[in-house]
Design a protein that fits this description.
alpha/beta; Rossmann fold; 8-stranded mixed beta sheet; 11 helices; 14 strands; about 40% helix; about 25% strand
């Protein structure tokens, strides 16, 4: 994993404009900071999706067209702390469905915490954690004969450009079979006064979350980032429906990574894009999946209409 981290950081810092993959936010410190973000009053995304899982679990199960007598694998990509999924796992177990829960995450720390949590709170649910790349892990499950129900929650698809999202969904389709299902959680397009504070909370937790990526580069790749010379800059417009987080260099400076033996030049005001958060509507999602083997069959939203969980069938 460290080699992949080094390779992608080198590529991102060598590019114009500079960027760093948001998937590397999640080390132990990053996991803890993101849990804090999810509990911030400004961060409506997690609460909105949790509301859907808490109040509409029956509709989710019905929309997935699950059969109590058919064993299935419930695979979650980027499982994190599993708070939302736990709501559904409990209902599935109580109602007698036969399944195995397979959370996949890049963070072993997150998986370890999730497994401990579920062992304590839902001891009768079979859990099989897998650490690593989504598609590598999915490929390892490809030959099992069981139906697969894949969850991709938290608007993680929104961290990709539309082209990347379409490619991701297409690749996901190729790892599944007919009648497998996909449940995607997506943040919906809404006004900037609601969206922007979610990425710029008043206590600065989101700023610390972004800055921790620079600390991780320093600690794991031998970087010499002076974090005090960068500021966190979130942006969002309803016209594009895209929120972005950037780290901006406040001075001209040169960064060195001992692990790559290379230097990276920054000019004052230069940005490193750390995260894209695309907001969706029905039209955008339809366009993204139109050339794949998935068909959108159901949409569930929270009461405020901030967030949606879409169910897609592999056909």
């Amino acid at each position: 994993m460290i080699e992949q981290f080094k390779k992608e950081v080198d590529k991102g810092l060598s590019s114009q404009p500079k960027s760093l993959p948001s998937k590397f936010f999640y080390d132990k410190t990053g996991d803890e900071l993101f849990v804090k973000i999810m509990n911030m009053p400004e961060y409506y995304l997690s609460r909105s999706e949790l509301e859907i899982f808490h109040e509409q679990s029956g509709k989710i199960i019905k929309g997935l067209n699950l059969n109590r007598n058919q064993y299935f694998e419930l695979i979650e990509l980027g499982a994190g702390d599993g708070t939302k999924t736990k709501e559904l796992l409990e209902v599935l177990h109580t109602e007698g469905y036969k399944f195995e829960y397979i959370p996949i995450d890049i963070s072993q720390n997150a998986l370890d915490q999730l497994e401990r949590k579920l062992t304590k709170e839902l001891p009768h649910v079979m859990v099989n954690t897998k650490q690593g790349d989504y598609f590598t892990m999915l490929a390892s499950l490809h030959n099992t004969k069981h139906q697969k129900i894949v969850f991709f929650l938290g608007s993680n698809l929104g961290n990709m450009t539309d082209k990347e999202a379409s490619s991701f969904i297409s690749k996901l389709s190729s790892n599944l079979r007919n009648n497998d299902k996909l449940l995607i959680g997506l943040d919906l397009i809404k006004s900037a006064d609601i969206v922007l504070p979610a990425y710029n909370d008043s206590e600065g937790v989101t700023r610390a979350f972004n800055m921790n990526l620079l600390s991780r580069i320093n600690n794991e790749l031998g970087g010499d980032f002076n974090i005090d010379t960068f500021i966190h800059k979130p942006t969002y417009t309803t016209k594009t429906g895209i929120a972005q987080s950037c780290l901006v260099s406040t001075i001209d400076q040169t960064l060195t990574l001992s692990s790559t033996g290379k230097t990276y030049q920054f000019i004052e005001g230069e940005e490193i894009q750390t995260e894209i958060s695309r907001k969706y509507n029905d039209e955008i999602l339809t366009r993204i999946v139109e050339d794949t083997d998935f068909k959108i069959t159901k949409k569930l939203t929270d009461k405020k209409g901030y967030f949606a969980n879409y169910i897609l069938h592999r056909v």
